[in-house]
Amino acid sequence: MIIKLNDTIPLKGKKFIFLDRDGTINVERNYLYEISKFEFEYKAVEGLISLASQDFNLIIITNQSGIGRGYYTIKDFTMLQSYIIRKCSSYGVEFLGYVACPHYKENCECRKPKDGMLRAIQERFEIDKEYSWIVGDKVSDTETGRSLGYQSCLLGTGHGKNNFEHKSDNTYFVKNLSEFANLVRKTNERLY
Ligand SMILES: [Zn+2]
Predict the structure, then answer these.
(1) What's domain 2-191's superfamily in CATH?
(2) Contact in structure between 6 and 95 (CB atoms under 8 Å)
(3) What pLDDT, on a 0 to 100 scale, did the predictor assign at position 88?
(4) Cα separation, 69 vs 179, whole angstroms
(5) Which helix (H) or strand (E) holds 65?
(6) Confidence check: pLDDT of 165 > 90
């Protein structure tokens, strides 16, 4: 498991949002590692800015089996990852860090929908799960940590074009990250 946390980012309380990366923050490019091919998803920047302004700690949780498959290296991954974090920072969005599963065929505990990446973060921070969310474009994103008690939301971006059929009582569905940020705002107003 690859874990990178930025100690210089001040913690914003105990509310966390765990975001998938490919198809959620950036346009899905199947095993993306080239910075030149990086492109933000529709309304992703707006969504991230809103979530940051709502005082959430933001962490990227991403399956990167392209490393295990030999399509790109950990260094390729971390270089793109640093680029994304810098790019978001230029919009005023600071990520607390990221966690990645580099495995492919290994029977690991971190590849989503398994919850190893979430557990690793839980060991480091006190998290108020009732107010914290998992968001992504795949059911494997929302399934991860379902038993851990987070709120979850599927997006219509990336692989999410077919997600309407997976709409269920315990997972929300919205079109993009900006709509997700609105959903989070409304839900928090109701909870407080
Ligand atoms: Zn793994």
Answers:
(1) HAD superfamily/HAD-like (3.40.50.1000)
(2) yes
(3) 97
(4) 34
(5) helix 65-68
(6) no
In the predicted model, what is the mean pLDDT of the chain? Answer: 93
Distance separating alpha carbons of residues 130 and 147, to the nearest angstrom: 13
User: How much distance in Å is there from the Cα of 101 to the middle of ligand 1?
Assistant: 4
Residue type, 68: G
How far does the centroid of ligand 1 lie from the alpha carbon of residue 113, in Å? 10
pLDDT of residue 5 exceeding 90: yes
Q: What is the mean pLDDT of residues 48-71?
A: 97
b/e burial code for range 17-42 (CB count within 10 A of at least 16 → b): bbbbbbbbbbbbeeebbeeeebebbe
Catalytic residues: 20, 22
In the reported structure, the alpha carbon of residue 119 is separated from the centroid of ligand 1 by a whole-number distance in angstroms of: 13
pLDDT of residue 171: 85
Could you tell me the distance, in angstroms and rounded to a whole number, from the CA of residue 70 to the centre of ligand 1?
14
The Cα 58–Cα 135 span in angstroms is 11
- Those residues whose C-beta lies under 8 Å from the C-beta of residue 109, and which sit 6 or more positions away, are 115, 116
pLDDT at 169: 62
